[in-house]
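INTERNAL AUDIT FORM
Audit reference: QA-55
Scope: verify that the stored structure record matches its stored sequence.
Auditor: D.O.
Record contents follow.
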Amino acid sequence: MAKIVVIVGSVRSERNGIKVAKWIVEKLQNRGHQVFLADPMELALPLLDKMYKEMESPTEKLQEFQKIIKDADGYVPITPEYNHSVSSALKNTLDYFLEEYFFKPSAIVSYSVGSFSGILAGNHLRQILAEMGTPSIPSQLPISKVQEVFDNDGKLLDENYEKRTSRFLDEFEWYVSAFAKQRETGMPY
């Protein structure tokens, strides 16, 4: 069992990302993982002024979130595509921390209401995550026309995603396990 943080990338009022995130959380829990859903709407993080490590007295809520990020074995950011990139809400949430992410894998889920499935945002996010020390696995889970894949209650409508998601999570689990074993032997810094 691993500790996984699923990070929602949208704060829009009629966001589809929360449906995707809750579905991924359920899939990970069904595999026996301890999962935390990081929702920027609930975290209500202000625009980043100082990183967590630079703050003199972070709020109790932010201290709890930092512990969750630090104790995690891996991360699954759920990114929409806004103007060919990640959302500011996702970037803001990620940027509060740095060393907490080191040597732990991430797995990118991207989505859009169009046919390109947020793949450009996912590719951009891959660069960001690598710089932050949480390299993403080679595969990405892109979801096209997300409004046709999930109903309004977040129920999966397109069963083709079951097999894709299973393979994607198999790969992620492999990386989570491999990185965990290496972290036990020490860090290369």
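Auditor finding: record pair retrieved intact. The two ends are 27 Å apart (CA to CA).
Action required: none
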